[in-house]
Structure formats: structure tokens, C-alpha cells
Amino acid sequence: MSIVVTGATGHLGRLVIESLLAKGVPAAEIVGLGRQVDRIADLGITVRQVSYDDRDALTAAFTGADKVLFISGSEVGRRIPQHTNVVEAAKAAGVGLIVYTSAPKADRTDMKLAAEHLATERLLAASGLPHVILRNGWYIENYSVAQALAHGLFGAAGDGRISAATRADFAEAAASVLAGEGHAGKVYELGGEPFTMAQLAEVISRESGQPVTYTDLSPEKYIEVLVGAGLPQPYAEILADSDRAASGGALEVPRADLENLLGRPVTPLAAAIRAAIH
């Protein structure tokens, strides 16, 4: 069996490879693709420097692969052409199964961030390739505990519940799909223990012993704060829109799919925050 992991040099990709190795998949059967290949050179797998912009290189890298984990690109606004390259390359290479990391409720949310993911899901459906959709929820790591301790938490999510989970949990779930069978055609909505931003502030306060508060803002004001902190305007707008959608429940999903793939409970929020502090 040959498993190719795209985006392997990012945080999620490396964790997936580590989880595959822990599950007993031989290193010789794993290929990691990415741009900064030095980041995974220590894992003992085959490593190839490949960009989502190079369809020919992707096709060559996918040739002979039984399964491909297609980790979505990180360049918002460029995902559709890049993802088209990945899907077309997988089709040309005759990949047996492609597993894609999408966004929560991609087919029924108005969250702007989900639009490119839905377009990719449709590309996969049109390709005829056997595929699995992993609609990964928010990473707990999206929320910087260090910044929260220094400045508090800010956002525009209101009382919306966010089913975030650790990046490691999402990676282990992806590895379970890649190492297992019977997943083709499935769509998994993946999320962890739900919390509001105010509850997140409470957990950080309790675990750190330092008071942390959450300040809820309008999306417009939140954009101002993010830009003032140095984020590019387009990225700030995406984050604020995601919070706006979260306020209406867009980021809350049951944890059953994630726990079924893990074969255990999700990592508790308090444990994740405790690990980030220590």
C-alpha cells in the first residue's frame, strides 16, 4: 500500500504522518509532499518537494498511490486553481482513494471560508474518483493561549458554540481513514467539545490561574482590531466573517464522527489548554 500526504510539511501533515507510523504503516509506504521538506526529513518516509501550482509534478508524485490525503491549501483566494490541479493530477494518476480536508457544514453554511472547500468537494464529485470528505472543525490551536493571557480574548462569535478539537485529534482521525477501509463516499463532520468564547476564557483562567476575559465585538470592529494587530485586511475579514457565522452555530457539530474515527473520546478542552500553558 502506498499513501501520499500532501501539505505534509505543515503542522497537520506532519502529525498525520506520525499517526500513520504509530498505527504501524511502514515508513516505506508513506510519501510526504510539500514545499519545506526539511521539516519532515527526520520521519524516515519518502519526501518530495511539490507545489499545488505544479500539476505535472503532482501527477508524477501521485502515480502508483493507493490513497492520497489532500490537505487543503493555505492560500485563501488561490485554492480553487490549486485544488483543481490536485484533483486533475489524482485523476490522471489513477489514485485509488482521495481524502480531502474540508470545512464544517461546507454544503450548507454561508461562511465565506467554506466557499472554496465546497467548490473542491464538487470538483471531487465530478472527477469520479473514490473520495472521503473530512470536514475538519476549528483547531483549538487557532486560539493563542499566550496572547489570551497577555491581552485577553477578542472576537465576534457572540454566544455561538465552537466544536474545536486539537490538531492532533484531527490528524489521528485522518490517519484512521487512510489506514482503514470502507470510508469511500463518506462525509465526516468533525468537531470536539463545544464551547463559547466566554467559556474558553473561563477555561484558560482556571488552568492558568490568571484572569482572562472575552470581549465580544461587532464583525466590523473585530476587523479593525485584527488589522491593527498587523493582519492583512482580507485575512482579517475572513476571520471576522467566520466569527459572525459561528455566532449563528456554523462551527458547532456533534463530536460523534470524530470520536468514532478516533475510537476514543476527543481530547478535553481543559487538557488542551493545560498542555498549551505548560
TrEMBL record:
Domain named NmrA-like is located at 3-242
Q: Which domain of life is it from?
A: Bacteria
* Pfam families xrefs: NmrA
Q: This chain belongs to which protein, by name?
A: NAD(P)-dependent oxidoreductase
Source organism: Paractinoplanes rishiriensis
